[in-house]
Amino acid sequence: MTDDLVKRLRAELLEWLDKTRWVQQTCQTHELGLHRADILRNRIEALTAELARLRHCLKNANDKHEFYEREWYLRGDRIEALTAKVERLREALEPLANKGRLHLDALDVEKARAALEKQP
């Protein structure tokens, strides 16, 4: 090997050691005895797996949110349709209420039916 090649390799090794010193300083017990490159690979693989898991969780959360948002939208439509039906029913029953045969504010349908049956 030439002196230039040795100098270049030495410089690259020192740079590698300098830039990966943090790996050795943050080494965990299960990483003892491993090469820095192996520790880096294991950590990258673990982080990649965790990222995939979190993306999956986020997708599930978004899907559920969209499902419930759609359900609330549909319920809103159903509520509007039922409210319109109630108003049409009130309008249809208004003549009976004006004659005193029906109390439109009755909340209980059975009570309203019973009151209708009692009226002449």
Question: How would you characterize this protein structure?
Answer:
The protein has 120 residues and is mainly alpha-helical. The chain has a domain at 49-118. It has four helices and no strands. The protein has helices at 3-19, 21-25, 36-98, 109-118. The chain is rod-shaped. The N and C termini lie far apart (118 Å). The mean pLDDT is 81.
List keywords for this structure.
mainly alpha; 0% strand
Task: Compile the SSE list and pairings.
Elements: H1 3-19, H2 21-25, H3 36-98, H4 109-118
Give a concise summary.
The protein has 120 residues and is mostly helical. The chain has helices spanning 3-19, 21-25, 36-98, 109-118.
Strand content range:
under 5%
End-to-end Cα distance, whole Å, is 118 Å
Largest sheet: none
Mean pLDDT: 81
Helix amount: over 70%
Radius of gyration: 38 Å
Shape: rod-shaped
Please report the number of helical segments. 4
- Low-confidence stretches are none
How many strand elements?
0
User: Based on helices, strands and strand pairing, what is the structural class?
Assistant: mainly alpha
Secondary-structure element order, as H and E?
Answer: HHHH
